[in-house]
Specification:
Chain lengths: 305, 309
């Protein structure tokens, strides 16, 4: 384009269009959350560690070529080496494979138990808050009574009665586990219920079900997500604790808790048998907890513990 | 005030009743007979045993008898240890667990408050970050793993402390520390976040500008307000310490109630499981109740809320 002497000059069409646009693209709520979470280094590292642990829980058992139940008595209690990366146990089973099987069980229990907690807790809490009056009073009183019972005792009792196994653990954990979620969702919904957009939705003739599912629960999602990330490690801990006491999954399947229990007996001479499962449990719980903390800072700064 | 107490008391009683009902019927729902073992027992002896322990009566009669016993603090005989009652087992095991629990509680409360205050006063500086890392570790590393780690490091490798058993003070240190770690970390976080909030309040500025010295402001104004939520946590904390000691007592071979409980589970000693569950539940519920009462005196606002309703 040749230079001319006019004060104003016409610009090219393409450029004109660009100038109409705002400099930032619009950001959704979750993009914003993700952006803020990325600034928290610890939470981000924990997210990466969790992804690695999760991936290893899926593929880890197949890497070494040994199965979790394959015994080689001539190779018992081998220290970690090139073939057995985490060593072997008292029956010569490969600890690397067993550890990742254990991690798989921990993740499964943690995620399954907290998903069930999530569904029951969210519905119970939201319905109680929405119903109000006597219904709410009775529902929350019921939750209070259940909440007052020390949960680990109930879990142990159930494990004794039904017998041990993964699904018993999940059942036992969910019987009292949902209450915390229900309480948090209720208090959130009670706040949201007062806001104008709910009144507007009611005025426009939205049904209670629609208000509950389309307006109340999505708006309480922040608190729900934070509670969820903190429920998973407590479920993982409970499974490990029960397995450690001998109430968990049965041999030859091993969870990290049972392996820690077995390793304890051999601590003096074969410390690696305790070391690897212990590190895996701690690392998983640490990552979930730190991630939960990070999420809480972003999503709901008022929710402090 | 009375409203609040009545409500909390009712929750306490109904929870306790629920626990008793639950334990009783769950234990009786287990298929099989508590006296049938590997060896066959003659039918007459089995019947005599059932009669002796009252198992030949209808279930509801057994239930009311048991309930009556629980109300009189009589938890019945042990099925596996002849001649021992559940009461005896509790009275031998509990003092040990209680001692251990108290030591852990003291460590957790004092350690937690100290760490939390130091972190809050150095908010966003190095001590704060160090404290936060310790706290997250304390919450994430399960007590039984910490216990075995301490045992390995301090007792086996460095020979600083006795490995296990019970009797002298030095034998209580490691168990108490591992039991205290989780509540300590929790209290530290709670104290820290509350203190940061309180430190920003106007009345702290006022107190400082009136010339009160730092220590006085800290003790009279900051801590007093920041510790309220910590008091609420004391109830659940006791529960955590008590149930946590099941694993700890197993690791260190401590003859406390926790070990009896775990043993009775592996032995399928149903009356002991029932008795100890009810005993623990009653104890923990009572702790929560006492904490609620305390809270009511410390923070008059709670009481007022209830009187208004």
């Amino acid at each position: 384009m040749t230079k001319n002497n006019f004060l104003f000059e016409p610009i090219e069409k393409e450029q004109a269009q660009n100038q109409e646009e705002t400099s930032y693209s619009s950001v959704t709520y979750w993009q914003d959350v993700w952006h803020k979470l990325k600034q928290n280094k610890l939470a981000l590292i924990c997210l990466i560690i969790l992804s690695i642990l999760f991936a290893m829980a899926i593929i880890g058992p197949f890497i070494s070529g040994y199965t979790y139940y394959q015994t080689q008595l001539s190779l018992k209690n081998t220290p970690p080496n090139a073939t057995f990366w985490f060593g072997t146990d008292e029956l010569g089973r490969d600890l690397f494979t067993r550890c990742w099987w254990g991690a798989r069980i921990s993740f499964f229990v943690g995620i399954a138990a907290s998903t069930i907690d999530l569904i029951i807790g969210v519905l119970f809490g939201a319905i109680a808050a929405l119903a109000g009056g006597k219904t709410e009073e009775w529902m929350m009183r019921f939750a209070d009574i259940l909440y007052a019972i020390p949960y680990l005792l109930v879990v142990i009792l159930l494990m004794v009665v039904i017998g041990s196994g993964i699904f018993t653990i999940i059942l036992a954990l969910t019987i009292t586990g949902w209450i915390n979620m229900a309480r948090i969702v209720r208090s959130q919904v009670l706040q949201i219920k007062q806001q104008d957009f709910i009144t507007a939705a009611t005025a426009l003739g939205a049904s209670k079900k629609r208000i509950l599912l389309q307006h109340l629960i999505p708006n309480a999602m922040g608190a729900i997500l934070v509670t969820l990330t903190l429920t998973i490690p407590s479920a993982i801990f409970a499974e490990a604790f029960l397995s450690f006491l001998g109430l968990g999954v049965q041999a030859p399947i091993a969870s990290l808790g049972t392996m820690a229990n077995d390793g304890l007996a051999a601590l003096r001479y074969y410390p690696w048998r305790l070391f690897f499962p212990a590190v895996l449990i701690s690392l998983t719980m640490l990552s979930f907890n730190a991630l939960g903390d990070g999420l809480r800072d972003v999503l709901d700064p008022r929710l402090k513990t | 005030m009375s409203n609040y107490l009545v409500k909390k008391g009712l929750i306490l009683l109904s929870s306790l009743f629920l626990v008793t009902v639950l334990t009783f019927f769950l234990m009786h729902a287990i298929p099989g007979d508590p006296f049938i073992q590997d060896k066959a027992i003659p039918e007459e002896i089995l019947q005599a045993l059932h009669k002796h322990y009252g198992l030949d009566q209808p279930l509801y009669v057994q239930f009311f008898k048991y309930l009556d016993g629980v109300l009189h603090f009589e938890l019945g005989p042990s099925f596996k240890y002849e001649g021992r009652t559940v009461n005896e087992i509790i009275s031998t095991g509990f003092p040990v667990s209680f001692y251990l629990g108290m030591e852990a509680l003291v460590i957790a409360v004092f350690g937690g408050i100290c760490l939390g205050s130091i972190a809050a006063m150095n908010h966003r500086r190095l001590p704060d970050y160090i404290m936060m890392v310790i706290a997250v570790l304390g919450i994430s590393v399960p007590s039984f793993i910490l216990a075995t780690f301490l045992q390995y490091l301090l007792a086996m490798k460095l020979s600083l402390l006795p490995v296990a058993r019970w009797g002298s003070f030095s034998q209580t240190i490691m168990p108490a520390l591992s039991l205290a770690a989780l509540p300590l970390a929790f209290i530290a976080r709670l104290t820290r976040s509350n203190m940061i909030e309180v430190l920003q309040q106007d009345y702290i500025q006022t107190a400082k500008s009136k010339g009160l010295n730092g220590i006085k402001v800290l003790l009279r104004h900051v801590l007093r307000n920041a510790l309220l939520p910590v008091v609420t946590y004391l109830g659940p904390l006791t529960a955590a310490v008590m149930t946590g000691s099941f694993a700890i007592e197993k690791i260190f071979g401590i003859p406390g109630l926790g070990q009896w409980f775990v043993m009775s589970i592996t032995n399928r000693d149903y009356t002991v499981i029932m008795g100890v569950t009810i005993f623990y539940s009653a104890l923990l519920l009572l702790c929560v109740f006492i904490v609620d009462l305390l809270y009511c005196f410390i923070d008059p606002r709670i009481k007022q809320d209830y009187d208004k309703k």
